[in-house]
Amino acid sequence: MSTSITADVVLHRGRITTLDRGKPVASAVAIKDGKFLAVGEEADIMALAGVGTRVIDLKGRAVLPGLFDNHTHVVRGGLNYNMELRWDGVRSLADAMEMLKRQVAITPAPQWVRVVGGFTEHQFVEKRLPTIAEINAIAPDTPVFLLHLYDRALLNAAALRAVGYTKDTPEPPGGEISRDARGNPTGLLLAKPNAAILYATLAKGPALPFDYQVNSTRHFMRELNRLGVTGVIDAGGGFQNYPDDYAVIQQLADEGQMTVRLAYNLFTQKPREEKEDFLKWTSSVTYKQGDDYFRHNGAGEMLVFSAADFEDFRQPRPDMPPEMEGELEEVVRILAQNRWPWRLHATYDETISRALDVFEKVNQDIPLTGINWFFDHAETISDQSIDRIAALGGGIAVQHRMAYQGEYFVERYGARAAEATPPVARMLEKGVKVSAGTDATRVASYNPWVSLSWMVTGKTVGGLNLYPQHNLLDRETALRMWTENVAWFSNEEGRRGRIEVGQFADLIVPSKDYFSVPEEEISFLTSDLTMVGGRVVYGAGDFAALDDNPLPPAMPDWSPTRTFKGYGAWGEPDGAGKHSLAPMRAQAIGSCGCANACGLHGHDHARAWASNVPVSDFKGFFGALGCSCWMV
């Protein structure tokens, strides 16, 4: 090996999973100008170290390529992260409510306390949401807005006053304001079936000043780095206008402060004006404009409002209106003519098949070959639709929404119907381009390890077994879904996703070896060392001293981020996070409220949660069998 080139960084004495099929393992890597210069064995790589080379001893630790989320909402999430009390990963409603109580106590008027998605009631041992009365008791004067998935929001009395909802407020289209016998709003908002009322209400809350939003976005990116995320594709979002709401992320990119590579799709905000949006954007924005840290990635996930089948499994499947095809065709023709890739939110096969009719029609006039377009979500996609996507050269971006909503799907459609939602293994078998992500931050958590666990185990965060063995993935395949497979969806194949010469030097050192930890521990992994472009953007434990990304404290000073930090309230390992930061069996034993072991389960509540019990009332069912543990 030539030693004429000196590496900027060398990492050695590791157990490196490269995902390069020609060289699947290595013990050392060299990095130059933000890319992998060499990947191989100790002696060869160390020869590339010079006087100015940073040498990092991996101490025998396992190393993986950086994780790359195919669908998330970091631009929007970053603007709000420091205002949000995150219940992601919190395993007890009692702990969550204690967090809420403490946050209410320090939140000044007129600010709100917001719990905005990323969790489900099924993750709590109590298996329920708080009541509005319980929230009012904690917060009589401070507005509290609690978003649960895309199905409902809970507002306390102070929040109702703040948003101005009264008995005279008309019913919103596609939603419902729950009312008491006198017609007064109770504080429960329901998506029936779309979440417009939930988002519109949330948008009434105070926003952070610009410099606080910059700080907030940096903290959100650091939280992603802590979990091993080095790149994302941002799918736009409701109430996220281009270019105004992208000013913060653009400033961070201009100042070299991006610690997560971000490719963004443009999401229309105007029903019945979508065509005008895309005509304007395709004439003013160049596909791929930007750089390797922040650049344009095409259109979507909202192309036209008439094609949006929101996935509230507590409601019947919505039928798309008859104008869907005509409106969608107008937009897709504009995108195809400009060679812009697109992504389309589609939960149900009924929507996917109708959209494919449009794509096939456009393809007859404007060949779609070479345009990396894809569907998002696709929980109930059919084999026929998969084949049609493959024939057109498209892809499918799946997310772990069923890990949060699986119980509701089973309740409505049955366990058999849920066995392939989505049929990931089948998609891979058919050779379709497919990758994985989260759809964070509202419907699901931004934690990538929850997604990896879901694909490997087939379980929801509440422990329900959704999938039979034939729809599960082995750990390597699941990892590829989060790394090299995503590169097609950002049109960067061969540039990222593997630890391979010439690719971006993005890698992580997981807190434990992903390939050897028990399955139930996968979702509890974090990263002890995260590198993006050869820069250490996060370091912890043995690697804390290497961290090149110090951040100022979260702003404002009352931010929940200062106290609880993020997923599982990890900032308080002896407080709010005490039941959330260890594998499920340890949590259950540690949080068990019974003085003696339960006669049916001992202290092994985790096994009880994971049981595929054909009832919705777990507590009553096990109680009938003589179970004495209140945890089930």
UniProtKB/TrEMBL annotation:
Q: Which Pfam families match?
A: Amidohydro_3
Taxonomy of the source species: Bacteria, Pseudomonadati, Pseudomonadota, Gammaproteobacteria, Aeromonadales
All copies of the Amidohydrolase domain together span 54-538
CDD domains annotated for this entry? Answer: YtcJ_like
| PANTHER family on file | IMIDAZOLONEPROPIONASE (PTHR22642), PERIPLASMIC PROTEIN (PTHR22642:SF21)
Q: What is this protein called?
A: Amidohydrolase
Q: Where is the signal peptide?
A: none
What is the top-level taxon of the source organism? Bacteria
What organism is listed for this UniProt entry? Zobellella iuensis
